[in-house]
Amino acid sequence: MANNPTAIRGRAWFEALTGSNGKLPNGPGSLLVAEAKLGNEPAIFIALAPDPNARFPRARNAEVGLEEGFYGTRALREIMAQDANKAVKRPIISVVDSVCQAYGRREELVGIHIAAAGIIAAFAEARMAGHPIIALIVGRAVSGSFLTLCAQANHMIAFDDPEVLIHAMYKDAAARITKRSVAELDKLVKKSCPWPMISSRFRNSADSTNC
Amino acid sequence: METMHFDYPASTTVPKRICLGVVASGDLEVLLQPSKDAQSHVLIQTSVAGFEQTWKAVLDWFFSTYTDAADIVIHDAGATPGTVAMRLQQTVEESRS
Amino acid sequence: MSLNMNESNSRESRRSYIELKARERATQLLDPGTFHELVGPFDRMESVWLPMQGIVPQSDDGCVVAKGTIDGQPAVVIAMEGKFQGGSIGEICGMKMAMAFALARKDNEKGIPTRAVLSLESGGVRLQEANIGELVIAEIYAELVALRQYTPVVVVIAGNTGCFGGMSLAAGLSSYVIMTRQARLSMNGPEVIEQEAGLEEIVASDKVFVWGMCGGAQRYATGAVDVLVEDDADAITEAVKETFRKGLPPVLRTDQYELFIRRLAAMDTSKQWTAEDIRTVWKEIA
Question: In the predicted model, what is the mean pLDDT of residues C99-126?
């Protein structure tokens, strides 16, 4: 798996924005949720962080795994329930530095596609209910972590930074599957819009699809 | 990917437009519809370059009996001349059915 | 003697759904004579990105969208062609899928109960269209979630390509999943898991293990799939109709998170698990 030296950015930005460590009383150590002021209004911040003590060995580096999916869904649903009768729903800011989904046998046996779908539905229904959803991409948002933590947002904001990667798949895996070399992929990146691998190029494709 | 064009004379009309086949390895997709003028026009996009003469031979054979004025588009993913000929035949049969 | 002949006749008359192309599958799922294709092959909505990379496009970009009726009710069917680029989701086919769901949603908002069926085999996002594919998949999810509050969204998974990646999540979001034994449903493909996690995690070439993990029978046994069907075109069509007759599901799969949390808490994560372990715990905690 591609190294993710910046898996710590999620926690760093979460703590800087909320002043909280985001620990849930009944949740995995990887899931950070807290309410904090955004300007003058209360907002919910949610992020994933590495947890070397995570119960699932394949989800210890801020991947979107089973617990992140199911407990993350629960956290979002609780927020929606709390605001159900309010005229103004709290914004939900998804602070994202997550390498991808968890790759593992346990994950597929249980059904990580259901765990991931849970988070997607929760973000989508929160948005439909009137919660402004903002994805703040401070590091990696690739494949499953992009689809679950970012892609249902009203707006996606990304740092213009070489460690911010927003993509369908990492270069080495993409090269293997498309039977091209990484050098050939790099040439394609320059030529062809769907391939941007760094955030400044992604802005172009995001604009063009009106997201 | 290679793109080729061929034109052939025509004298009758295509009864029905047809799309057949899948762009899968060793297969091809054929679209056939009435052309806007009294000629047939064939556009080929193929994943295997360098076989223009083979394509011409297959099409010469096909148009030796096919007289409808057709716009034909072929998306080919490496089908053999035999498979191409068969798909073209199938397309004609479907357009007449 | 006559019983045997009837049996062999019905065996011979049983048509494979898996062998049908996407257009034939869409026709099969709709009531006879009601199939009307939208953005079909002659509209030539093709990928512009594939030719740039030397890959021959398909006129419908590997996705058939058709309106018609199912069981007499207005319906839209989306069928992916697994033999074109592995049924992968690119800009055009993804937008066709998203807009088909949007069309059904807009009908429902006006009181027309248009239902939607998605016939899948799909390897997930089309890597040659990478980020655009991901964005379009996000649109698909948004529309599916919006539509499913009005009418069931039924996903049919059949075929050798299976249902992986971004489309496995579409199955997870759907109201009901109908699946054949031969198919697989998994977020990450076994080859990718083997590459990332090694042979101790999974041996991708071990077909018995792989189908035990994510094949139709296992998925049905663990409730990830609602209906297990034979590879029989008429049986699948009937299963789709019967599923719509059930109406909206009492609980959506994405709302079952508390149940899954209880199940995960009961399992020993220090060991590797087998397909049987899951079936056992899933039965105990239901």
Answer: 97
Closest-CA distance of chain C to residue A111, Å: 7
Q: Model-level pTM greater than 0.80?
A: yes
Q: Which two tokens stand for residue C72?
A: 């007499």
Give, as one character, the DSSP assignment of residue A91.
P
pLDDT at A199: 47
Contact C83 B17 (CB under 8 A): no
Burial category of A177 from C-beta neighbours within 10 Å (exposed 0-12, middle 13-18, buried 19 and up): middle
Residues A18, A46: Cα–Cα separation, whole Å: 10
Which of C249, C283, C238, C245 is CA-nearest to residue C263?
C283
Per-residue tokens: A45? 């911040």
Terminal Cα distance for chain B, rounded? 33
Q: Would you say how long chain B is, in residues?
A: 97
Q: pLDDT category, B51, cuts 50, 70, 90?
A: very high
pLDDT in tens, C158-201: 999 999 999 999 999 999 999 999 999 999 999 999 998 999 99
Mutation site for C-interface testing, chosen from A63, A74, A79, A108 by largest number of C Cβ within 10 Å:
A108
Which residue bears the tokens 């002659």? C42
Give the model's pLDDT for residue A168: 81
Indicate the domain borders of chain C: 14-252, 256-286
Domains defined along chain B, listed by start: 2-96 (3.30.230)
Q: Which among C109, C134, C222, C278 is the top mutation candidate for probing chain A, defined by the most A β-carbons within 10 Å of its own β-carbon?
A: C134
Option in C23, C42, C54 nearest B1 (CB): C54
Burial of A11 per CB tally in 10 Å (0-12, 13-18, 19+): buried
Beta strand segments in chain B, E: 2-9, 12-13, 18-21, 28-34, 39-46, 68-76
Q: How confident is the model at residue A192 (pLDDT cuts 50, 70, 90)?
A: low
**Minimal CA–CA distance to A148: which of A74, A78, A65?**
A65
Task: Check CB contact under 8 Å for B19 and C21.
Answer: no
C-alpha distance from A61 to closest chain C C-alpha (Å):
14
Q: How confident is the model over A1-34, as pLDDT tens digits?
A: 445 555 889 999 999 999 999 999 999 999 999 9
Average per-residue pLDDT for chain A? 88
Please name the fold of domain C14-252: 2-enoyl-CoA Hydratase; Chain A, domain 1 (3.90.226)
- In order of their start, the domains of chain A are 9-167 (3.90.226.10), 169-211 (no CATH)
| CA–CA separation, A46 and A68 (whole Å) | 11
Under an 8 A CB cutoff, do C253 and A117 touch? yes
- Chain segment A86-131, per-residue pLDDT in tens: 999 999 999 999 999 999 999 999 999 999 999 999 999 999 999 9
Chains that touch B (3 or more CB pairs under 8 A): C
Give the neighbor-by-neighbor strand order of the sheet with C176-180: C36-38, C63-70, C73-80, C115-120, C153-157, C176-180, C227-229
- CA angle, corner A206, sides to A205 and A209, nearest 5? 85
Chains B and C touch (3+ CB pairs under 8 A): yes
Taking a C-beta distance cutoff of 8 angstroms, is the pair A48, A31 a contact?
Answer: yes
Look up residue C143 and give its amino acid: E
DSSP state for residue C254 in the 8-state scheme: G
In whole angstroms, give the CA distance from residue C178 to residue C176: 7
